[in-house]
Amino acid sequence: MSKQGRRSTVQATLAASGLVVAGVGFAVTGPAAQAAGEQCQGQDATIVATADAQTLTGTDGADVIHTGGFTGVKVKGGGGADIICAIAGTRADLDGGEGDDVLVDVATGAGTGRGTKIFAGPGKDQFTGVASTVLTFEKATAGVTVDLAAGTVTDGGDTETVTGINRVRGSAFADTFTGTAAADVYVSSIGPSYATDGDTIRTGGGNDTVTAYGGTVDAGSGSDRVLAYAAVVEGGSGRDTIDQRYGGTANGGSGADVLTAASSLKEGGPVTALPSVLNGGAGNDVLSPVFASGAGKAFVRGTVDGGEGNDILSLVGRRQGIVDLQSGESGRVRVAGGRSNLASIEYVRGSGVRDIIRGDDGPNRISGNGGDDAINGRDGNDILDGGPGRDVVKGGLGNDVCRNAERRVSC
After folding, report:
1. Residues 162, 154: contact at Cβ < 8 Å?
2. How many CB atoms lie within 10 A of CB 207?
3. Residue 214: left (phi > 0), alpha (psi -120 to 50), or beta?
4. pLDDT tens-digit profile of 71-98?
5. Looking at the 3D structure of the chain, how many domains does it have?
6. How large is the average pLDDT for residues 268-275?
7. Does residue 400 belong to any structural domain of this protein?
8. What is the domain-level CATH number for residue 359?
9. 115 CB burial (10 A radius; 0-12, 13-18, 19+)
10. By residue range, what is the domain housing residue 331?
11. How would you class 2 by CB atoms within 10 Å of its CB: exposed for 0-12, middle for 13-18, buried for 19 or more?
């Protein structure tokens, strides 16, 4: 089929004598069932795709539209109460338009590509999908409330139903998401807005994946992966991985979590320091403040608190870190001029360059990793490992173990 045929646009109008399908290079007339050859929700289709990458446009009335199993088909239902079907995994886009529409992503095993994207629109719609289906509210004009556990959506005053869908993309406004016990995927808005959306996400159980632009995330009981832009994240009881960007707070909860403050430098405008807070909570956590810098200045200002358990401070990047676990009432880490206050950190893992790391009076485990490191365990029974490079390791008081050090003192 030619490129022109693959990109054709199908527009259908119903006449009193039957169905008329007008496209590029073909025309079909006759009764709906004869012309379509497909059914959607038990009804004969009135508009059916005939090639990949077509755009099917409905009428102002009630249409029954089917993508025919072709790939990359886009459907615009128009007015009326439409019924629209796609085959899962064929990268279809379904937009019912105005009216009380039924949009269905059919699982047949035929499609293997990206999941169908269903656009929510005006009206009391019904959305049915499979694991790969994405329900998106990016065209909404106000915030939405999505409760996947209850199978309901409140969108512009309309209450809609959701069945079999676990992937949701929110609007550009303040949304509320509640998840299921399965593995859900949430994207809270259509782009970074750095705490202006005010979304609320509750994932429920399951190992969920969340991208949150501002607002709050309650990650629930599963082992979740959260990418949070200037958001507040509550990790819950699972083994969570939380990547915090552009400030915000990450609370790991009771599991063994991995928390990262990946950047604190605000995009655009004047250079601004945005504070990041990492709280490990219970469990043996790994906490990594990553320091942004520019023009000789660093812009990280944060707090790292390991909480209960044996927690690791992990330095990331190629800049020297200076760590003191016993600096005043709490410890401190400095990299390139930026700093974070430390609390309840037992272990330290250095960067790939020269670091200066000092322990506290308790039992510490310190690893310099790469670079010519200087490590001082202070009091307590410490395990100190210089790693690659020409390292100086000082045990201090206590029964210490020193490894991979070219110079050892009090070990």
Report:
1. no
2. 17
3. left
4. 999 999 999 999 999 999 899 999 999 9
5. 1
6. 58
7. yes
8. 2.150.10.10
9. buried
10. 310-410
11. exposed
